[in-house]
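User: Let's play a game. I give you a shape written as tokens, and you guess the letters that built it. Ready? Here's round one.
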């Protein structure tokens, strides 16, 4: 941060260059970007007096690894036909996505200061008017069906771009996800990767108290997906699983995360699904994220 504003990520290497680094060097760089993204989210939500900071923090390492280390994209040409596609199905966590997109160069950093302000393009849920956003999301259960369609389109056009969809675990209570999963498994869409942000909390309660999801991995496997469980805050593990080649099946990555990850008083607390930190809490959070 510079004078309370978000610092740019100058000179960030393209994924092809990042792949040449050692696993430790690559993970260290991605971790630094993730810290900056979380600091950005704190300031955005504090200024807007609105947001979903807990889920923003749990998904940050996933989004950072994808946009800064994995996805084929061109920020100067967001509609490049050969780009990989990314859909944030848990669209209420837009602050983290906007921060990643701005830091990756899709739009100016000062746009982040307008988050959820009147007439701002950066509203509370992603919108395709924003450079780098592939689909309008917010109503839960829509992202994976769209992702299946995109994966089919890639195959029909003879292209090799991939589609990544990040879902909330509470969102999996929507039946449309399982219809889409069934279709993807049947079509063996190995160019489709679903990433479940498995923080085990949703608005108001724990997922397992609301509508039990476990055994979650078995469910995805039974629908014809290859399924892998990893630490969703381990940048090296995330990078490795996201860069593995397709194996004839769609891939479901269950990323075990902590809601509010990175700030002690936010972590694993259900009330921080949709809560705005006080000025004192903002300062404490920024201090913790500077260590």
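Assistant: Ready! My guess for every position:
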């Amino acid at each position: 941060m510079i004078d309370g504003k978000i610092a740019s990520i100058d000179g960030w290497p393209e994924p092809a260059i990042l792949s040449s680094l050692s696993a430790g060097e690559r993970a260290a760089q991605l971790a630094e970007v993730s810290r900056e993204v979380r600091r950005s989210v704190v300031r955005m939500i504090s200024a807007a007096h609105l947001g979903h900071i807990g889920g923003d923090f749990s998904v940050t390492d996933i989004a950072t690894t994808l946009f800064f280390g994995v996805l084929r994209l061109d920020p100067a040409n967001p509609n490049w036909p050969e780009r990989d596609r990314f859909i944030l199905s848990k669209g209420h966590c837009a602050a983290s996505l906007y921060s990643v997109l701005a830091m990756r160069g899709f739009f100016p950093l000062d746009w982040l200061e307008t988050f959820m302000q009147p007439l701002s393009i950066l509203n509370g849920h992603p919108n395709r008017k924003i450079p780098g956003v592939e689909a309008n999301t917010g109503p839960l259960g829509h992202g994976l069906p769209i992702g299946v369609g995109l994966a089919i389109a890639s195959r029909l056009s003879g292209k090799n771009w991939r589609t990544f969809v990040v879902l909330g675990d509470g969102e999996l209570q929507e039946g449309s996800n399982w219809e889409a999963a069934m279709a993807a498994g049947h079509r063996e869409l190995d160019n489709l990767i679903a990433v479940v942000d498995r923080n085990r909390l949703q608005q108001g309660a724990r997922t397992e108290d609301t509508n039990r999801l476990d055994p979650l991995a078995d469910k995805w496997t039974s629908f014809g997906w290859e399924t892998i469980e990893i630490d969703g805050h381990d940048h090296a593990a995330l990078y490795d699983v996201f860069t593995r080649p397709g194996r004839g099946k769609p891939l479901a990555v269950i990323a075990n995360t902590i809601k509010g990850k990175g700030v002690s008083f936010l972590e694993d607390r259900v009330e921080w699904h949709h809560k705005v930190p006080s000025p004192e809490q903002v300062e404490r959070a920024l201090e913790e994220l500077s260590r």
